[in-house]
Amino acid sequence: MRPFLRRGERELLALAFAHRGRCHLLKQDYRQVIDDTKRFIRLYEMLIDEGNLAAMHEHEKKVLSTHEPGATFIGNMPLLSAACEIANQCRERVGNGFAPKVVLEHSRKAIEGLEPLDFMVFPGLNALRAHLHVTRAHAALELERWEEAKEDAEMALACDPSFKEAEYMKQSAENEEW
Question: Using an 8 Å Cβ cutoff, are 41 and 140 in contact?
Fold first, then answer.
């Protein structure tokens, strides 16, 4: 038997999962971002079916009150989740020496998909971008595409200057060694 929800509780629960996903992004726990976004999407679809989105968007405005007017994260959660999924899969594949060409293509698409997102609304977004660029650099090194690897390592460092793995990838590309 399902517990009876009071008015507005489902909207708050959906918003909570979306917000929690944002927090996990900051922690770089991409698996948890994916899981929380799946929960959010299920609730969001229920709210769409009920035609009851206004309350959730009002709560979102309160959460983002310190950001520029019109800032939103709710609509971008599925995109963020997909990018996290790609980041995890590509990192695993390239780490195991599988499909570097596929990794290059998929991670490029994830990076392009993240372009319109605001790192101020999604704390930790630049770390995800850096993670994707380092994964691309790793794949390019596997294929001995030195210039491409160096460019991606530099992009990773632009996103996160303290990323030691990106420094290592850049150095490897400059030395044309892997």
Answer: no
Per-residue pLDDT reduced to its tens digit, 121-154? 999 999 999 999 999 999 999 999 999 999 999 9
Count of alpha carbons within 13 angstroms of residue 26, beta-carbon side: 10
Tokens of 87: 């980041």
Residue range of the domain that includes 51: 9-75
The encoded tokens of residue 30 equal: 């991409």
In angstroms, the CA 83 to CA 128 distance is 8
Residue 17 CB partners (closer than 8 Å, separation 6+): 36, 37, 39, 40, 43
d(CA 105, CA 86): 10
Point out the domain boundary residue: 36, 54, 75: 75
Mind listing the pLDDT tens digit for each residue in 61-95?
888 888 888 888 898 999 999 999 999 999 999 88
